[in-house]
Amino acid sequence: MPDTFTPRTVTPLPQPLMEALQAILGPRGIITDPSDLEPHLSDWRGLYHGASPALLRPASTEELSAALKLLYEADIPVVPQGGNTSMVGGAMPDESGRQVILSLSRMNRIRDIDPIDMTMVAEAGVVLKTAQEAAAGAGCLFPLSLGAEGTATIGGVLSTNAGGNTTVRYGNARELMLGLEIVLPDGGVIHGLRRLRKDNTGYALRHLMVGAEGSLGIITAAVLRLFPRARAEAIALCAVESEEAALSLFRRFRDRDETAVRAFEYMSGTGMDFALKHIEGAVLPLSERGDHYVLVDLASSRADADLRGLMEAVLEEALEAGEVLDAALAESEAQRHAIWRLREEHPEAQKREGASVKNDVSVPVSKVPELIRRSSEALKALIPGSRPVPFGHMGDGNIHMNLEQPEGMDPAEFLARSHDIMDCVNAIVRELDGSFSAEHGIGRLKPDMLAEWRGGAELGAMLRIKAALDPKGLLNPGKVLPA
């Protein structure tokens, strides 16, 4: 069950430490007013409500290094927070009132873009959408794309190894990173902003930091990989006969031209109904509603790529095979945006419909239909009247196997079954050789699962790495690793 403990009284930082931090960070670099802190004390889903004596906002790596050194010496725990879009409470302080929040929002410069090397050097506080726009301005593409890209930051998406919609083509955040600048818990700085594709010089410390959720060090800047921008695109929304038909359609596109598939997203009929009900302006561009949908997004850097012809040819084959029941191809940028909006607004639509439990899981791509079908049946049997809302990245095996409360059920009563619901899905995921966390991370919600899924020597190695880099356990305590 997610934490619902009432925030305790805040423990102020010792006055000498406050004065030293103010001298380092300046008047804009430290916030203690409760009303200004309030937006940083609750997560997006409303599962956690913490307390903190201060929010630190350094403007440079040097300021952060000096501040962390002081906090380390004073044994003050630090919780890094990017855009605060975590689904698992990874950026939340606890209720003790001792943990300081760290925001790198002032470190928001794009230091360099090189269209020859196809790299961008961005500070951790750069918003993902801003990075995308900066790349486009240089005639390039930064392909990481997700629903929270207008709020999520580069430091946050790297710290959580975010996936998103284009993983099937470009990989997760880890695959889009070449080098990192990192501040360690004691203030030491790793200067690793190298733009090299090949660099076999010892342990790849940068990869330890990606996905560590700020528990080993603070990412302050990154060298990001860029790609040629798309010069041809084609997007379609399809109603398909079943989960298996959705996978078959993906295989048809992949087998015809794997390099053209930029995204392949699955949505259930229930999730689509929620989006049409709750999202203003949402319209289904098909003749009638279905039980299963897919969004197909094709892109190429070749201006002469006939992606519309490819789309039409594959869809015609699938229609003849009975896999696709209806399809609509976008004819304009506005229509492309409208189709993608139906997919991107799924989390918000579920939130407006009522209480929901999130299950961010992954299985081998071939097992996705079985995951959706078996989990939906098991969840409806577990809580009669509940409404499974599976959706997500079928092309890379990551499905958000979410469950919406039964109509009329008390939300608190439903959420009290959170761990029962997650266990129900995870039992099936384990049988299918999957993972209980695909792209949302572990945060504060799932550390206890790690011992069961990654125990023995694997968890032992993780604990030793944590002890070596953060021996006092001051960086993002209570996250990722079990107590």
From TrEMBL:
Keyword Flavoprotein: yes
UniProt entry tagged with the keyword Flavoprotein: yes
One annotated GO biological process: respiratory electron transport chain
Transmembrane segments: none
Keywords: FAD, Flavoprotein
Domain of life: Bacteria
UniProt GO molecular function: catalytic activity; FAD binding
Location of the FAD-binding PCMH-type domain: 48-229
Named cofactor requirement(s): FAD
Family per similarity comment: Belongs to the FAD-binding oxidoreductase/transferase type 4 family.
Name recorded for this polypeptide: FAD-binding oxidoreductase
Phylogenetic lineage: Bacteria, Pseudomonadati, Pseudomonadota, Alphaproteobacteria, Acetobacterales
